[in-house]
Fold this protein.
Amino acid sequence: MQSKNCIIMNVGSYIFSQVMDFIPRYQLDKLVAKYHGDWHAKNLTCYNQLLHLLFGQITGCGSLRDICLCLEAHSQILYHLGFRNTVNLSSLSRANENRDYRIYEGLESILSYRGGDPRQELYFGEDLAQRTGHQAERLCQSQSICQRTHSILNIYT
């Protein structure tokens, strides 16, 4: 029997860190280098910005302020979620304005082209206009996955 003052620790990995395992970090770093995404970045790298935005998307935060407040409230577990540091609202907003969108567009193209297979190579040759139908089909699939993931997060929060 456990006492009332006992702190229960998480033994496994958090759902958010499991979702982030699907992001191909090497290919993201190649895109960041290609478009000079981390130029003049001290605390908020492109990967850290992606973590912030995906956390907000998965948890259903409605604004950047919600993301920052939610991460601040969970400061004890941020390292286990994959965050090395968090930033304030103005830094996140400035990064969203100034970062090259092609970094994240390329990441989306890699994820949709790979189809979840981590052995696939990085591929940029296919024109986006030719893949519109294929992307729409994948979008419907990913929306149902996101809805299930959101419901799972609601169960554990």
